[in-house]
Design brief:
Elements: E1 40-44, E2 50-55, E3 63-69, H1 83-90, H2 103-109, E4 118-122, E5 127-133, H3 138-153, H4 159-176, H5 179-191, H6 206-211, H7 214-224, E6 230-236, H8 240-251, E7 275-281, E8 288-297, H9 305-310, H10 312-329, E9 338-346, E10 350-359, H11 364-381, H12 385-405, H13 411-423, H14 431-444, H15 447-458, E11 463-469, H16 477-490, E12 515-521, E13 526-531, E14 536-541, E15 549-555, H17 569-576, H18 587-593, E16 602-605, E17 610-616, H19 621-633, H20 639-657, H21 661-665, H22 667-672, H23 684-689, H24 692-705, E18 708-714, H25 718-727, E19 755-761, E20 767-774, H26 781-805, E21 813-818, E22 826-834, H27 839-856, H28 860-877, H29 881-888, H30 897-910, H31 914-924, E23 931-938
Parallel strand pairs: 2-6, 7-11, 14-18, 19-23
Antiparallel strand pairs: 1-2, 3-5, 3-6, 4-5, 8-10, 8-11, 9-10, 12-13, 13-14, 15-17, 15-18, 16-17, 20-22, 20-23, 21-22
Length: 940
């Protein structure tokens, strides 16, 4: 829930979170020729605290409030490593106005979900506290700012609470520990040597987590939690004047508790010439990674129009290089799985550029050759006009769509963007400003501009050549790596093959379909249509997202009819269908043909249907449906899709061998379904035995004539959308009625609960305890809603007992899942990442908590604290296209009861009683009904 680590493995996304570790805290627009968004109010209180207020209408009636402190792990002294993140936790454990143990319950009673509506994270250079307030009442705003005032100047930091939190932090450290994190640490010690990055990881040192005395927390808190290092960001559906009044009243009185101190020196990377090699083996890694990197010192530049334009050609060059790598990875005998290039500036400290290739361990030398050759191919031969045309079209389309959708952006996302702009010293500009700046430059850009930018980025900097992962290089590995790189570097590289333009081939599907029935569901704003060919179409126009349209198409019977003698066919179909492209265009061809258009199709095998989905806009709605119809009528099943699947399976099962995910994704689902082959992921050999021909044979009749229902939700004209569907899906051959398949909806839950133990090979000391109580299917929505709330109560008890009281897990949770496909099939589940030595204890505690619910029931306060956030979520979801499409519109004719479910959702949840939950708990959560699974590392 709370996050301490905000960066990906190689820090590739930190360009938007670059630090402002220098004295000037004026807003970035003060030193720029770029205009800040005029709808945003920027200000500074007399005590030095900054604020940013933006009125925004989505979600309606809610406000996103953020408190950002420009202090993180970088500010820690050597004996404080981990204190910044630990301190973030302590904000929830007792302040002036919220005694220990009361704040989370206070949030819940306000209708806020802990971990969703209230959260926090600590990064290297800043800490952020987040509240998404449930309404915009004056008293709610006042309470929100009072909480922030207490975070800023009211933490109690009691010794007892610090001691209690140590176990939670250690559990978080255990949860975060994985191969990727360990690899990042090893690389950072080499590539960022001389800086604070490798010595100030936010999670800190175990010795300090276990033993830092209270005075170290107080020392850090007093020095760095100062008003002049804080910014309050407020974005939401409320009057800015009211927000400012409440903000000033709560935050204005804050004062420094200690004298200011200079920001620490972050060190500096040392430039060098030539090549430096490093080898970091991780036997438990899913693959081997080979990278070439160049790192140099960087000092943050003013965010001006000229500087933004300066880096635009580099961005285009990196995009084109990544496109080449993506295409190359799919070729026969490619010898590697995936590759990517990146370039960015981070932390007012480093500039880096890299190319990274992932492969099987025995292919590391070829991966290194690919990295070197593709980099040199770009640097020596540049790019083609066709490549730049595609990249510019996509970039420009993104800018244009941002302008068209700006009016309905979500407040939480805007708050995050503002934080990124402040920490990166970027002006918070409007999408219109960005388009006006970049569009002329994109129109004039040439391949030569991009080549020059790429050459300048790599320059004559020394190169790191890094090999990590599950590769074993005998002898002196660094010598072998250096020799392999030198050999690859001496080989000449040819120019890339010339790109041939194509035209989209799927625009005519025959005469437009005729409408045989049309009706309105006025209270829900739906239009229901049936075409002569049997295709059903359900439409709901909304104003939730400007110029965005979301589409879902259900066809056929899905996994219900997966052949029993072809286990894993659904998994393979999910993996290869879209990547197999179309008969007349490969997936890569489609990317080029459709560049600059907002279209795309996703595919998935669901329990009782094959599912196609996509998002588009008014201008591209016809093209989106043409693309969807093309996938229905002429899928490609090209061989590159199977090659990519095979590579992906290699990595997935390597990961399964060394993590709890192996048993939990393969054997456990199969056990809980009494061996039904439709459940769980089959062994790798079984999946590899499946073929594209099998997938085609299964899908072809379903796609040709299976029952079809389409849902469209978003910003569109109803009649125009009906016309588009009539010309595409409505013009296809006649659809069959949807079969009942009653026999295929049967699945057996084991008659007797079991206890099973699984192991995996790992030196990382963490495992999972998973408990399952059989419940019921989703045919009775009244019951399903109550089971969901009961799951929330169990989850809350786990938080209090397992996390807060005994510090046994970082984020224990529980919830109910009731199937709407399989009769009688549903589970209440609790899944907890644990210290292996405590697995048995945590399992016993969880079983006892559930059994106590069954025997003693729940309290009215527990029900309210779980229900009120749910009601807030329901209210917000009613203005989201995702809810309407996924829960109502996509099958409004096949399953018309969903219309009543939408109508009753709020009132039914409001009507739930403790007695009803007590009855369900008594029926389902007894200790004699629990299925218990432990998955632990075998560290022998």
């Amino acid at each position: 829930m709370r996050r301490y680590f905000r960066i990906p493995l190689f820090l590739t996304a930190l360009c938007v979170l670059a630090t402002a570790l220098y004295a000037d805290r004026t807003f970035p627009q003060a030193t720029s020729d770029l205009p800040a968004d005029q709808s945003v109010r920027f200000g500074v209180l007399p005590n030095g605290m900054h604020y940013v207020i933006m009125q925004n209408s989505e979600p309606q009636g809610r406000v996103a409030v953020r408190l950002m402190i420009e202090a993180g792990a970088f500010m820690e002294e050597e004996n404080q490593r981990g204190v910044a993140h630990f301190l973030e936790h302590m904000a929830f454990n007792g302040t002036k106005h919220y005694p220990p143990g009361t704040l989370i319950k206070f949030f819940q009673r306000m209708g806020m979900n802990f971990g969703g509506d209230t959260n926090a994270y600590t990064s290297f250079d800043h800490t952020v506290y987040m509240l998404d307030l449930p309404d915009t009442k004056e008293e709610t705003l006042a309470e929100g700012f009072q909480v922030f005032a207490d975070y800023a100047d009211g933490m109690l930091l009691q010794e007892k609470e610090i001691e209690a939190e140590r176990g939670i932090i250690l559990s978080e450290k255990r949860t975060r520990d994985n191969v990727g994190f360990r690899t990042f640490v090893a690389e950072a010690e080499v590539v960022y040597a001389g800086t604070r990055i490798p010595t100030r990881l936010p999670i800190g040192l175990e010795t300090i987590i276990k033993g830092a005395p209270a005075e170290r927390f107080v020392h850090f808190y007093d020095i760095w939690y100062r008003p002049d290092l804080m910014t309050v960001i407020v974005v939401g559906d409320a009057d800015p004047d009211l927000i400012q009044t409440k903000l000033v009243a709560a935050m204005g009185p804050l004062v420094d508790r200690a004298p200011a101190v200079p920001s620490p020196e972050l060190g500096q990377v040392s430039p060098f010439k030539g090549t430096r090699v490093n080898y970091h083996p991780e036997a438990e890694a899913a693959a081997t990674s080979v990278s070439i990197q160049a790192v140099s010192p960087y000092q943050i530049e003013p965010d001006t129009a000229a500087n933004r334009l300066k880096y635009l050609p580099r961005s285009m060059a990196i995009s084109m290089l990544n496109r080449r790598l993506s295409i190359l990875a799919k070729e026969e005998n490619a010898g590697f799985t995936s590759a990517r290039a990146s370039a960015n500036e981070s932390f007012n400290l480093i500039r880096e550029i890299s190319i990274e290739v992932s492969a099987k361990p025995d292919q590391w030398q070829n991966a290194l050759r690919v990295a070197d050759h593709e980099l040199r191919r770009a640097l020596e031969h540049g790019f083609q006009a066709a490549e730049l045309k595609e990249t510019v079209a996509n970039y420009l389309n993104g800018l244009e769509q941002a302008v068209k959708t700006a009016s309905t952006r979500r407040s939480s996302g805007l708050a995050s963007q503002i934080i990124g702009s402040l920490m990166g010293r970027h002006v918070f500009t409007t999408p219109a400003t960005n388009l006006a700046l970049f569009a002329p430059a994109l129109a004039q850009m040439t391949p030569e501009d991009c080549l020059a930018a790429l050459r300048e980025a790599w320059g004559d900097h020394g190169r790191y050549v890094l090999v990590n992962g599950n590769v074993v290089i005998p002898g002196d590995a660094k010598v072998s790596i250096a020799a392999a790189y030198a050999a690859a570097h001496q080989e000449p590289v040819a120019p890339p093959a010339k790109i041939v333009d194509e035209v989209f081939a799927y625009t005519d599907f025959g005469p437009a379909g005729k409408i045989v029935e049309r009706s309105e569901v006025k209270d829900l704003g739906l239009t229901l249509v049936t075409f002569a060919n049997g295709v059903r179409l359900n439409l709901k126009p909304t104003d939730f997202e400007a110029n965005r349209i979301h589409i879902n198409l259900r066809i056929g019977t899905g996994q219900l009819t997966e052949p029993a003698d072809q286990p894993g066919l659904s998994f393979v179909a999910n993996s290869i269908f879209i990547s197999g492209g179309l008969s007349r265009h490969s997936a890569d061809d489609l990317r080029r043909i459709l560049a600059g258009r907002t279209v795309g199709v996703g595919f998935g095998v669901r329990g009782d249907a094959f599912n196609f989905n996509g998002s588009t806009n008014r201008d591209d709605l016809l093209l989106e449906f043409q693309l969807m119809a093309a996938h229905l009528t002429d899928p490609g099943y090209r061989p590159e899709s199977m090659r990519q699947l095979e590579k992906g399976l290699e990595q997935m099962f390597n990961s399964f061998a060394h993590t709890s995910g192996g048993a939990l994704n393969t054997e456990v689902p199969l056990l809980l379904a009494s061996g039904d082959p439709r459940f769980g992921i089959p062994p790798k050999a079984v999946l590899l035995s499946r073929t594209a021909d099998e997938v085609s044979a299964w899908l072809k009749p379903q796609l040709a004539s299976g029952a079809t229902e389409i849902g469209i939700v978003g910003d569109f004209d109803v009649d125009a959308a009906i016309n588009v569907v009539a010309r595409t899906i409505g013009a296809l051959p006649t659809r069959d009625p949807r079969p009942e398949l009653a026999d295929r909806r049967q699945v057996k839950i084991p008659t007797e609960p079991f206890t099973r133990h699984f192991t995996f090979i790992s030196e990382i000391p963490k495992g999972v305890i998973a408990l399952y109580w059989p419940t019921a299917d989703a045919s009775d929505v009244h019951r399903t809603r109550r089971l969901s709330l009961l799951g929330g109560v169990l989850s809350e008890r786990l938080r209090v007992k397992v996390r807060e009281e005994i510090g046994g897990a970082y984020s224990p949770g529980a919830g109910n899942s009731s199937s709407d496909v399989y009769d009688g099939y549903g589970w209440m589940q609790a899944s907890i990442t644990v210290d292996p030595d405590k697995a048995e204890e945590i399992g016993d505690v969880t079983t006892a908590l559930a059994n106590d619910l069954a025997t003693s029931g729940i309290t009215a306060d527990e029900l309210e604290r779980v229900r009120l956030p749910v009601l807030t979520s329901i209210r917000e979801s009613e203005r989201t296209n995702g809810y309407w499409l996924g829960s109502v519109v996509n099958r409004a004719q096949e399953k018309p009861e969903v219309l009543d479910w939408a109508r009753s959702r709020r009132t039914d949840n409001e009507a739930v009683t403790t007695a009803e939950l007590d009855d369900l708990a008594k029926s389902y959560l007894g200790a004699d009904r629990v299925f218990r699974v432990t998955v632990l590392p075998d560290q022998k």
